[in-house]
Amino acid sequence: MLATIAVLATLQPGQTGPGVTCDELYYVMTGKAALTTVRHEGLSYFWKAGNWRDLERKTDEPPVHPPLGCWILGGVHHLFDGAPDDIRSISISGGRFAPALALGMLCFLVGITVVRREGPLAGTVAAAAVALAPRVFGHAHLAALDMLTTFFFVAAVLAVSEAEARGGHAWQFGIAGVVWGLTMLVRLHGVLLLPPVAAWTLWQFRHRAATRLAAW
Predict the structure, then answer these.
(1) How far apart are CA 198 and CA 125, in angstroms?
(2) What does DSSP assign to residue 20?
(3) Distance (Å) of CA 64 to CA 33, 139, 145, 155, 194
(4) Are 38 and 118 a contacting pair, CB within 8 Å?
(5) pLDDT (tens digit per residue) in 1-20
(6) Alpha helix positions (H), 119-145
(7) What does the pLDDT look like over 43-90, one tens digit per residue?
(8) pTM surpassing 0.90?
């Protein structure tokens, strides 16, 4: 909570916070367009293939990413949107609430995990270390996919670790795999977790690793 408050206190572009970046304009506009389409079409949005690319990509635009990150940005932006049906009207400050909340959730996730394994003092220090990392704190101010990617990457790794700590059953790795799937829905870079997780699982479970990895 303190980490989120610290970001929110330094969020306003050009005043208390950093200036607007080109990425923010693109992702907030894409997020708003995606959410507007969902609001107007309802559940039918999800089985119309064209909707997954709400704006046609031009050669000078950033690469198209999976939709979850933009949906989150668009959803949080919608809470502060004075003109929700006008896709030309966006609020960078409104979009920046999403990474600010993601930083708070990241600190909580790391902190509570370490508290359960090493105690309250270690958990508090771990959460503070995340919040005080300059690059992490800085990216929490920008309405782009970086902070959301960080949160989901860490959540996916900790989910696998938690599955092992709670008994290492295949169904537990299956639940961890859901988190990994969400990570790849934010950014396809999530596939890069496969080699280290596979190596770690082989080391931990030896001949039983195949079923765990298949479930994951």
Answers:
(1) 29
(2) P
(3) 14, 20, 12, 23, 22
(4) no
(5) 788 888 777 777 767 777 88
(6) 120-132, 134-139
(7) 777 776 655 554 445 555 555 778 898 889 988 988 888 888 787 788
(8) no
